[in-house]
Amino acid sequence: MVNGMVQVRRAYVDGPYGQMHLRIAQADKSDKPPLLCIHMSPMSGRVFERFLGLIGTDRTAIAFDTPGFGLSDFPPAPPSIADYATALLAGLKALGIDGPVDVMGYHTGAMTAIEMAAQAPGTVRRLVMVAAPIITEDERAQFHAFYKEKPVLADGSHILDRWKGFVYHHMRPGVDLEEIGEKFPDALLGGHRAAWGHQAAFAYDLAGRMPQVAQPALIFVTGDDLDVQSRRAEGLARNSLLLECPGWGHGFLDMYGQDVAGLVRQFLDAEGADPLAGITAPASALGPRYPARVGAFRPQDGEG
What is the secondary structure of the chain as a DSSP string? Predict the structure, then answer.
């Protein structure tokens, strides 16, 4: 262990669509349930790398690249959220993990976490969700129109457009362009099929699925592009808590990793009938929202 972190290693297992790439951090000895972390689309498990090293000091912590993203093989056709959940449950079994397991999901990963809890209630013990977006039918149409498969253009403008959106959603005090630039390539690894994850998310009935989940669920409403939609999830899961964290926008797992690990550990390790009791946001989570403009999309060129 170095500076309160354990080493994060990489590996592959065989899944239903081919090889699945993963990052894993392991304590020397632990009797605590493993924690599975599921990234948003179209990123990779790399977004959890620092967090894995922090939370993995006293448990096994794993982040797969979901099928078609990062370094995991593509499915043969656009998958559903249920397909992602089934693939990750298979990935855990390939690692020799049958449960109980805790699951932490980020955006698309949060939907997949809920689906895993519904598919395998005897395997999934507790849930941490970074956003729980409940979208209206009008929003669903807007999201489908915006996050669609886009053609590759010779002048590279399709990449520039992605870069502008990435900077808009990730830039905040304490973050520089070099840090954002290091993360950006992961957003491109899905190629022209990068929209598959978004399409699966927008087709998923999260509002209908959450009431079927009985596991305790801690939901972070961070200051990002889905904060408005996530507040609509309050009370949908019978044993859940919405925690306002406006200062934790994209990149918070790196910027405030110690705080996030401490809060997640408090919830996962809590004993008694109500593990959500006494959960409060740390100071870093209560800072101002960046960008200050609320909304799911970046302003287009020429907009305010």
Answer: -BTTBPPEEEEEEEETTEEEEEEEE--SS--SPPEEEEPPTT--GGGGHHHHHHHTTSS-EEEEPPTTSTTSPPPSSPPPHHHHHHHHHHHHHHTT--S-EEEEEETHHHHHHHHHHHH-TTTEEEEEEE------HHHHHHHHHHSS-----TTSHHHHHHHHHHHHHH--TT--HHHHHHHGGGGGTTGGGTHHHHHHHHH--HHHHGGG--S-EEEEEESSTTHHHHGGGTTTSTTEEEEEETT--TTHHHHTHHHHHHHHHHHHH--SS-TTTT----GGGGS--SSSS-SSSPPPTT--
Domains in the chain with CATH codes? 8-286 (3.40.50.1820)
Q: What is this structure's pTM? A: 0.96
- pLDDT tens for each residue of 138-152: 999 999 888 888 889
Q: How confident is the model at residue 303 (pLDDT cuts 50, 70, 90)?
A: low
* Residue-wise pLDDT tens digits, 269-280: 999 999 999 999
Tokens matching residue 211: 């009431």
Q: What is the pLDDT of residues 192-232, one digit of tens each?
A: 888 999 999 999 999 999 999 999 999 999 999 999 999 99
